[in-house]
Amino acid sequence: MFVSMNWIQEFVDLKKHNILDLIHRFTLSTAEVEDIIIRGDNIKDVVVGEIIEINAHTVKLDCGNKIFNCVCNAPNLKLGMKVPFAKAGSLIPKGKIETCIISGHESEGMCCSEADLGISDDNTGIMVIDNFISNGIDIKDIYCIDDIIFEVDNKSLTNRPDLWGHYGIAREFAALTEQSIKPLPICEIEDNEYEEVNVDVLARDLVYRYSALKVSGISKNISPVNMRIRLYYCGMRAINLVADLTNYIMLETGQPMHAFDAEFIQHIVVDTPKTECKFVTLDKAERSIDTSMLMIYNEKEPVAIAGIMGGLYSEIKDNTESVVLESANFDGVSVRKTSSKLGLRTDASMRYEKILDPELTLIGIKRFVYLLKHIDNNGFVSSKLADKYVKKYDEISIQFDKHYVDRYTGINISTEQIEKTLSLLGFSVSEDEDNFTVIVPSFRGTKDVTIKADIIEEITRIYGYDNFEIKPTYSKLQPVKITNEKKDEYTIKDLLISKYFMNEVHSYIWCDSRKYKKIGIDALDNVRILNMPPENGTIRNSMLPTLLSFVYENRSYAEEFSIFEIGRVVDGLKENGLCNERKKLGVVFYSKIKSEKDLYFKCIDIIKDLMFCLKHADTVFKKTKAVQLWQHPVNTSEILILGKTLGFINTLHPNVIEKIDKNAAIICFEIDFNKLEELSQLDIKFNEPSKFPNIEYDISINIKEDTRYEDIKIEWEKLNIEIVSNVQVIDVYKTKDINSMTIRFTFNSKEKTLSLEEVQNCMDKIISNLNDNEIKLR
């Protein structure tokens, strides 16, 4: 938002103050200033010149004390016309003007357009100056070209709807300089013999106030130069007198207004459409309107999108003499939703989104009438004022005492200073023996100031945070207690990064359908985020598609890598209607070097290591059906600990691996962190290591397709052989006809060195049990 200090000084006297210092104080006390722009410092010695002779390529100008020749072929040149003339030696934004020869003619200067002077973007012709202005006068003496403009960061005004107009910002400067702000000149709307504008507000839940007035007899179409300059400096272009007045008032008070051509308005109806429809806005774009969007109708014909933009067919034209003014207060959330759906954000919608003061609607209309009468004597009010005040905000009263202020601020601010500061900011203050009762003004009561702490902020920011004495605080410092969940999270991250050299990534909680599509994955139907684009609106129910899209984007940077993330997913809704939010660990391995089998077993080892570190428990893997379409229909297994399913590990569906990289192996697994935390940590069992050597014995057995290691290990566990110290799968071999598993048995005794005969006797028993269950050696 651009702010003109000339405009500010209409409401508060700052002549005795350094303007740049005040702007710096505004940053410290109110809102962040992003930039300061000095206007007019690049214009010098540009004077009023009267055209007294027009030739084929040149004109002669009377500049009061001298006649000048100038080469000029502007289309709007006329005898007797007065224009801004930059004589040789003068300065304009484009640079210094010098006498020169153009097409064989001497030119002693330049006739300037408004664009040449940097006071508008109009370069269709030479700027026309009123005939009553004397020749030779410097144009800076007749127009407000010199100005200081500062740009305020819009984000810092989000909770201050009163600062979306110059008058509200002037109130801040008045408080900073300990002055009372001057009243805004307005024209009261007197009762008259005309009929009231016919207004019906049907969507009463979306409208706070709707005011309307008809004004007729408008005979001028062009706004005064100083108004056009001010609009341009503040980022808006001049259109015509009526449109410029509505924009001027919006920039001045923060109240958006709209003017309809009265010829097209007989009965205003404020309502949402019953069916979807098309609507052409002022920018000549056709918009798709749905049944949730608030519209302004003339009877049944839509004429504007409430709070955003008017319609093309009721716009003000050059010959419009009578207008119906709309000054309304719409529900900010509704305006925001409509604006987002349409992809149409305007200066008006930005202000409505901030929750404006409904009391501004009448101020806007009265200010419009005041300005119009001072610009166009023929304009007059031609209706009674229509004012539908649908919903009022409750008056906010806040009580506190001086001790509360002293305790909160840590300094002693006098009672007089507290009362004066709040009064200058527009609050109604009463004080009795250091007890204050403050009535919050309507322009601060929509969402800004509601509690005592807000009052403290008002007092201290005007007092000046830089005036606070810098001193250390005295408070009891205690370390933050880390929960078991956080400890486990840190353990997992440390293990995956330090031991397995994995890369941690961070992602958004929603599905990115465009990225998913590249790898052949469709976002499943799940909870959606309101007002989000369709491609990003669905919240994910698994971490892995997001991580797989990262693998796709980074596949060309390394032949082998692995990534992980501990993040949030939403698995539908709970019974109470809230999101079933879960924390999950997602891991993906990518390799062009290792085989899919080797990568799979590496993941198995990592999962076992993680679970043992966290819960001191063994991990079991159980074949399961693929739940997600991107999972391999066969190579998908559940991850179980202590009989509870915590997640899954899988290879990818051939269609997905084809999209990512058909020459690579990709394995992924996901663990539900919330389920993991529900499990108790087992005690660690310590075994004294034997001083005698181990003996390893490998066997390869034929197994059925659906046989798991967990199904067969019972055959040796039930024998309870003491000298079996460890058993592990070291290989799995599969072909069309063969399905085998290689198992390694480790034997050890704490009392002696085992003989091969003793080991063979144990193995014979194990093999016999396996044979009894139709599990044969290869």
Q: How would you characterize this protein structure?
A:
This protein has 778 residues and is of the alpha+beta class.
Search tags:
778 residues; alpha+beta; seven-stranded mixed beta sheet; six-stranded antiparallel beta sheet; 21 helices; 28% strand; elongated
SSE map:
Elements: E1 2-4, H1 5-8, H2 19-29, E2 33-39, E3 44-54, E4 58-62, E5 67-71, E6 82-92, E7 95-96, E8 100-102, E9 105-107, E10 109-111, H3 114-117, E11 147-152, H4 166-176, E12 199-201, E13 207-216, H5 225-233, H6 241-253, E14 257-261, E15 268-271, E16 277-280, E17 286-289, E18 295-298, E19 301-305, E20 309-310, E21 323-330, H7 332-342, H8 347-353, H9 360-375, E22 380-381, E23 386-389, E24 397-401, H10 402-409, H11 415-424, E25 428-432, E26 435-439, H12 452-463, H13 484-499, E27 503-504, H14 513-518, H15 544-554, E28 560-573, E29 579-591, H16 596-615, E30 619-623, E31 631-641, E32 644-652, H17 654-661, E33 665-672, H18 673-678, E34 695-702, H19 709-712, H20 714-717, E35 724-734, E36 739-747, H21 756-772, E37 776-777
Parallel strand pairs: 12-15, 27-28
Antiparallel strand pairs: 1-11, 2-11, 3-4, 3-6, 4-5, 6-7, 6-10, 8-9, 13-21, 13-22, 13-23, 14-21, 15-18, 16-17, 18-19, 19-20, 24-26, 25-26, 28-29, 29-33, 30-31, 31-32, 32-33, 34-36, 34-37, 35-36
Helix pairs in contact: 5-6, 6-9, 7-8, 13-16
pLDDT average, as an integer?
92
Number of helices: 21
Rg, alpha carbons:
39 Å
Widest sheet: strand order?
A: 27-28-29-33-32-31-30
| Fraction in beta strands | 25-35%
| End-to-end Cα distance | 81 Å
Strand tally is 37
Largest sheet: 7 strands, mixed
Shape descriptor: elongated
Category from helices, strands and their pairing: alpha+beta
Helix content: 25-40%
As residue ranges, the low-confidence spans are: none
